[in-house]
Design goal:
With 365 residues, the chain is of the alpha+beta class. It has four domains: 64 residues, conserved putative lor/sdh protein from methanococcus maripaludis s2 fold; 90 residues, Elongation Factor Tu (Ef-tu), domain 3; 65 residues, OB fold (Dihydrolipoamide Acetyltransferase, E2P) (Beta Barrel); 76 residues, Helix Hairpins (Orthogonal Bundle). It is built from four helices and 22 strands. The strands form five sheets. Strands 2-17-21-20-19-18 form a six-stranded antiparallel β-sheet, with no helix packed on it. The protein has a six-stranded antiparallel beta barrel with strand order 3-12-15-14-13-16. A four-stranded antiparallel β-sheet has the order 4-11-9-6, with no helix packed on it. A hairpin with a 7-residue loop joins strand 13 and strand 14.
């Protein structure tokens, strides 16, 4: 009797479990189907455009003196007088310093004496040769060897005189070097010597005696990245701002370009001449150059969402014959939602605009 009861109970439990399983399965199938339909991806297709993508960029720049020179001594000596100081405005040719070199003065006096002596010897030997030459017209009066010896003596004295004159001129130049003059109009920005200081090639000059800079005209120097330098032209008007003058925008024209790219930063150095008669700007000030680029000629552009950048590559997904194909590209300038791309693309290429990394190559679209 107990065995029959257990058998009936087991049959009942099995029947209930079967009914519950069928019920849950019939309920979950529609939900799963709906879920599958819900995650089905949708793709937006578009075409590559052939147009320039302009961009406005701000690049750091620095004001530099139009001319700058470190003044070192050209002759050995002691500083006798310093006629300028830091901040002094000077004119071209103005005396800045006077050096004292007694040894150079003594050498100059000796060179002058040797030069006079050489000229006297040359005059005597020339007169002797000319007299012998005149006497040689009478046959037998002057031996040929004597005449040739006199001529050789005159030539030797002439060479000696030339050497002494060159030495005298060189020492005269050295004496002129003792007076230090300004090579151009400017302002003294640094002074490192005082009266009594030993200067010259014999002394180890770690710093220059004076530093002279021209501030009436400045150079605004900016490094332009490679991607922006392609469409840049000399004479182009650019705007710039200076942090010392907030809210003001200044204008300038590109005066010169270096013509090559820096190996480290892959950028081209560009200079803008800035008139500064009122001393508005200072050498060393920083500025921000506002560059309105025109984009690369004949460039192709795509929406920024179409370019996928991974750790290994940068590419867009093209659709050819209903299948996806990856095309490696290099990004150029960007403006808003469009970016220049360089790769094996044509204006007729069809691409996926809303590209994702999980899309595999060869997927049916």
């Amino acid at each position: 009797m107990k065995t029959i009861i257990f058998i009936c109970l087991a049959v009942f439990i099995a029947f209930v479990s079967f009914v519950l399983f069928r019920s849950s399965k019939s309920t979950s199938l529609p939900a799963q189907k709906a879920k599958i339909q819900k995650v089905q991806p949708t793709y937006t297709l578009g075409r590559v455009s052939q147009e320039k993508v302009g961009e406005v960029v701000q690049l750091p720049a620095e004001f530099r003196a139009y001319q700058e020179v470190n003044i070192y001594p050209k002759a050995d000596g002691f500083v006798e007088k310093v006629l300028v100081d830091r901040g002094s405005l000077v004119r071209k040719g103005q005396i800045l310093m006077i050096l004292d070199s007694p040894e150079s003065e003594e050498k100059l006096i000796a060179a002058r004496s040797n030069n006079l002596k050489a000229n006297a010897l040359l005059t005597a030997s020339r007169e002797h040769y000319l007299r012998l030459k005149a006497s040689s017209k009478v046959a037998g009066s002057v031996a040929a060897l004597e005449l040739e010896t006199a001529r050789a003596r005159m030539m030797a004295d002439s060479a000696y005189t030339l050497g002494e004159e060159a030495n005298f001129r060189a020492l005269t130049k050295i004496r002129d070097y003792l007076t230090v003059r300004a090579p151009f109009d400017g302002v003294i920005t640094e002074r490192n010597v005082h009266p009594g200081t030993l200067v010259g090639s014999g002394a180890k000059m770690e710093r220059p005696m004076l530093v002279l800079q021209q501030h009436s005209r400045l150079r605004l120097v900016v490094d332009i990245p490679e991607s922006y330098s392609v469409g840049l032209t000399s004479g182009k008007t650019v705007s710039y701002t200076v942090s010392a003058f907030p809210g003001q925008v200044f204008q300038g024209k590109i005066s010169r370009r270096s013509g090559d790219l820096n190996d480290q930063f892959r950028s081209e150095t560009v200079e803008i001449d800035v008139p500064n008669e009122k001393n508005t700007f200072k050498s060393g000030m920083f500025a921000e150059v506002i560059l309105d680029t025109q984009g690369s000629p004949d460039a192709l552009s795509v929406p920024t969402s179409a370019v996928i950048t991974s750790t290994e590559r940068q590419y867009v997904i093209c659709v050819e014959n209903g299948q996806t194909r990856f095309v490696d590209v290099r990004r150029g300038q960007q403006s808003g939602e469009r970016v220049e791309v360089f790769g094996r693309l044509t204006p007729e290429s069809q691409i996926i605009v809303n590209a994702r990394e999980d899309i595999k190559e060869g997927t049916q679209i």
